[in-house]
Design a protein that fits this description.
Layout: H1 10-29, H2 34-43, H3 62-73, H4 82-103, E1 107-108, E2 111-112, H5 114-118, H6 120-139, H7 144-168, H8 181-206, H9 211-238, H10 241-244, H11 250-253, H12 259-265, H13 273-277, H14 283-292, H15 295-316, H16 321-335
Antiparallel strand pairs: 1-2
């Protein structure tokens, strides 16, 4: 009698996809100028400054997993989605290098960010190189024109979302010019969701999916991205720095209008919050008030809603069942980080 195997848990899904993609990702990075390749390798956790091998914590590999699962959801072998996985992972690394510079974040995944380790100019150069390499990776596939168009559209949305995120910090906490929850959702979809949706859609296109199927995966990934950003907002205020790799309260000191902040500002319990947000040294006090005013609860409820919307889209699309199950496990894993 054959034993029934339990379905793979989300961490196992991520590991399987990372193992499939890693050789191609390393091969792509090695095509860069040696110095730029070292900075890229450092950003992925593969080496120390100077090039000595390292096994530093890297990213979770969510975007590359979505690309592989997108190909599998289209009924293809996951290897068909590897070029898409490499491209989106390169773009994600590029966005993090530039994001850390814009935000002035000195740490990334528990060690100095690339701009702190190598300098601002070199980090910008490395980011630019990663972006160019991502485009080249897709352009050489049989569906090159279609995939580059998808990536370009996602990048345009990413830039819009990042621009809004930066501008939100300059807007007041109250009054007609305040940031609304709707504006936040649009920002999060662009900044985080666009690349997640693009990853799944690119994998599907390389796996032979039709336009409607790829579009459904893109929309599901965008909802996942909003949920992912919401959970990140919660972790930035109340997470464990040993896990997140960043100090708690950094978003408050940078006056970011994250969803917990926006939700709390709408509560009568948070009348003192604008005053606290204007005092960078009172971030801990502000975080406590945001939680008491319901900001944390509201953000997690919103994240659950977007996770449910992504799950509905996956259930309605004509996708291969096993890949849909893996995508569902990935949704649970990402949402449960803060629940």
């Amino acid at each position: 009698m054959t034993a029934i195997q339990a379905p793979p848990a989300a961490p196992e899904v991520l590991t399987r996809c990372r193992d499939l993609v890693r050789p191609a990702l390393r091969e792509a990075v090695e095509r860069l100028h040696p110095w730029v390749a070292e900075m890229a390798a450092y950003s992925f956790g593969w080496c120390e400054v100077g090039g000595a091998p390292a096994a530093a914590p890297g990213g979770k590999g969510v975007r590359q997993a979505l690309a592989v699962l997108g190909a599998e959801a289209a009924g293809a072998d996951g290897r068909a989605g590897v070029p898409a996985a490499v491209a989106v992972e390169l773009v994600h690394a590029f966005s993090l290098l530039h994001d850390d510079i814009m935000d002035g974040d000195p740490m990334r995944r528990g060690r100095p960010a690339v701009w702190k380790a190598y300098g601002t100019g070199p980090a910008v150069l490395a980011g630019d190189a990663l972006f160019a390499l991502a485009v080249e990776t897709l352009a050489t596939t049989p569906q090159g024109a279609a995939t580059v168009r998808l990536l370009s559209a996602a990048l345009a949305d990413l830039v819009r979302g990042q621009a809004d995120d930066l501008l939100f910090a300059t807007r007041p906490c109250t009054g007609p010019e305040r940031v609304t929850p709707g504006e936040y959702r649009a920002m999060a979809e662009g900044k985080t969701g666009a690349l997640l949706g693009c990853a799944a859609a690119l994998g599907a296109v390389l796996g032979g999916a039709d336009e409607a199927t790829a579009a459904a995966l893109d929309r599901a990934g965008r909802h996942l991205g909003v949920a992912f950003q919401l959970v990140d907002d919660v972790l930035a205020l109340w997470g464990d720095p040993a896990v997140t790799g960043k100090p708690v309260g950094g978003d408050l000191r940078e006056r970011k209008k994250t969803y917990p902040v926006l939700a709390a500002l709408g509560s009568p319990k948070a009348q003192r919050l604008p005053e606290l947000l204007d005092a960078p040294g009172r971030a801990e006090e502000a975080a406590a008030l945001i939680e008491a005013a319901g900001g944390r609860t509201a953000a997690l409820a919103e994240a659950r809603a977007h996770t449910a919307a992504a799950r509905t889209l996956l259930a309605q699309a004509p996708l291969a069942g096993e890949a849909v199950a893996d995508l569902g496990r990935l949704l649970d894993q990402l949402a449960d980080r803060a629940f």
